[in-house]
Specification:
- The complex is a heterodimer of chains A (329) and B (437).
- Chain A is mostly helical and 329 residues long.
- Chain A has helices at residues 9-14, 28-67, 74-79, 88-95, 97-128, 135-147, 150-160, 167-174, 189-216, 221-229, 234-245, 247-262, 266-271, 283-293, 297-328.
- Chain A is built from 15 helices and no strands.
- In chain A, α2 (28-67) packs across α15 (297-328) and α10 (221-229) runs antiparallel to α11 (234-245).
- Chain B has 20 helices and 15 strands.
- In chain B, strands 1, 2, 3, 6, 13, 14 and 15 form a 7-stranded mixed sheet that branches.
- The two termini of chain B are 29 Å apart.
- The relative contact order of chain B is 0.18.
- Classes of the chains: A mainly alpha (329), B alpha/beta (437).
- The A-B interface holds A 74-75, 77-79, 149-152, 155, 162-164, 182-187, 266, 270, 272-273, 275-278, 289, 292-295 and B 2, 4-5, 8-9, 12, 99-100, 103, 106-107, 124-125, 127-130, 210, 260-262, 264-265, 274, 279, 396, 399-400, 402-405, 409-410, 412-413, 416, 418, 435.
Chain lengths: 329, 437
Amino acid sequence: MSSTPPGRRPGTTTLAAGPPPAPAEPRPSRSYRQLFDTRLLPILLIAPAIVVIGGLIGYPVIRTAWLSFTDADLSSLISGEMSFIGLGNYVDALNDPTLRRAAIATVVFGLACVVGTMLVGIAVALLLNRAFRGRTLLGVLVLLPWAIPNVAASLVWRWIFHDQYGVLNWALSSLGLSSFDGFAWFNNWFTAFVVIGVVVIWQSFPLVSLVLLAGLQTIPGDVIEAAKIDGATAWQRTRLIVLPMLKPLLLVLIVISTIWDFKIFDQIYILSGGGPARRTEVLAFTAYREAFTQSDFGLGSALAMILFVILIIVTIVYIRLIKDEEQTR
Amino acid sequence: MSLATRKTLSLLGGGTALALVLAACGGDDDDGEATSPDETTPPQEEEQQAELSGELTVWIMEPGNPDVQATIDGFGEDFEAMHEGVTINIDYVPWANAHDQFTTGIAGGQVPDLAEMGNTWTPEFAEVGAFAPVQPPEGVEFVEGLAQSATLDGTTYGYPWYAGARALIYRTDIFEEAGVDVPTTWDELLEVGDTIAAETDVAPIRPAGGYQHMFQPLIWNAGGDIATQEGGSWTPGFDTEAGHEALSFFETLWKKGWSPEGAVQWNSVDVRDDFANEGAAMMIGGGWDLRAILGANPDLEGKVGTALMPAGSAGNQDVFAGGSNLVVFQESQQQELAKAFAEFMIEPENAKAFADQIGFLPGTVGGVEETVGGDELFGVFGDQFVNHSRAYPVAGWWGKVEGNATIPTELQRLMLGEVTVEEAAANIDAGIADAIG
């Protein structure tokens, strides 16, 4: 209480005769502390996070970007020698029909999965938002696919779709669809992608549903009541009131789903192995294949960077959309 | 890849793993300091006993069977008991992940001292200097099909541990029902197949697109080679008369319609499961397959027979000699200890105990004879291995051809009718040439 703040009054009194910068002199301890508090402490506090993020994300990204401009191979791992080859790997990636196809498949298949995931996710969220018997049970069941590891789930689905012993072909042919007897789902790139898509959507919709369900429950009941009184049909209420109110959530979910679905690996590795004849490969899988089975770390890194750039572009587009949305509000 | 991925892959890999397996070793060109020409006496052991100490990290392919794992762990314990001050740490690596794990291990400088290495991968890693040269014990006759596979440019990089060769496995009851004899040539195989298809309700044999070790040796049987080496350069060999013949024979088998459409994607395990489910009268498989089949379907006990691979148009009936070496890493600080433990593991008694347990064979002629000699069913695999097996091209690039599935991919396209025999042959050669670089 009685203690004099070091620097204020004593400063002005004892050093009254001094030159103008004098007031700073008696407060060094305070200003260092201030400096520490405002500048250094925050840095120290976030340093561990920066080190971890920089080490686990920053360094690998930069290293991958660097490798993508080199001809690094297995011998480089031992000797450390590699040559800078400029855009050579990127030119190869764009000229090779298999790699180009993988890039296109990544985008087309990825977007299809996003659309599928969102549609199923929204439908299930709307369903769970209604009161009915067994709703809790259904809610738990819906979450299950999300809780199963990708590889385990993919193995189970592979058995389901097995051409000879799969339960699906058995069920379909028992229903009289004899063309499904021994139907080889993975012989054709389209049906193979359909199966992979089903598994991806099956695993990713629960999160979408869960988040949207939480969002739905924040929509005030009186808004819906008012719409009902005005004679809006259920479809109109969903399309004109519920979905617009959930739009920010939907956009975020779309961004997350896109990032997930553009880099799927496990499901393809297990279900089709990229076949038939490498036609169900997507960039994440192809990058792995080039880097680890061909020991062409340069080309593998280039493919990873292409995927990285595609994802950045898509994400920027979405973020723009979200910002526009916020501005129009 | 996540831990969960690894674990699950190892489950699925148990069978696939063994099917992927390959073998090892040169031993014909070493002039080491081995003290005893007697192959039953482990050389050097007594001399080294006093000096050995330290910790050894060993990577072994996960055998997918706790009993086998216990046998391997036992080798480590026995060796520790023999040498005070030695600690052996054995880690198990799933086959499906092993190639990646070796690559990342080398990249990160985190390699084991000693490791089991599939023999088709050995040249790939040896070529970049990952392994230390070794001298397998003298006075031991290694199976010739293996002898070249770990010797790159005259230097041996692996101790042969175990290997195996595929032969014809068939159903004696079905053959009896159809009234046919065991085929010894391709032509007879087609004839017998037609009869079985007409007389029984079992498929004769199931050609499969993802079973490369069934298809690839056909080019040898037709008198050709996957690639030939002249001087320092390799030339791919599928776009040749023999290569076309091998592809045509496979196409003929496929077009018989004996396999379901889905067999385009089947691998060796699918073929084996199908045989175990009594879907086919014949398959090409190894002793490990036969064990798995009899284990899965004991009803087949007494109803299966084995025979040498039917000979192709050139009269050749070679198959691929696949197995594992034990390799010592160049970066290891414990190379002497690693070599001593490897030599302990390949001692005839130990190698036999292990190989026999997994349905494979030790890499020595004497060991094979001891393991399956005279066995009506499994003896054939020994004969096939010792007398009619060889290695895939011993070169660093072969790993790329395997890793890229160059040959199965074209085979699948041939089965789907997307390419002709000539186009498939040309594409395979282009893929091989690309890998050679």
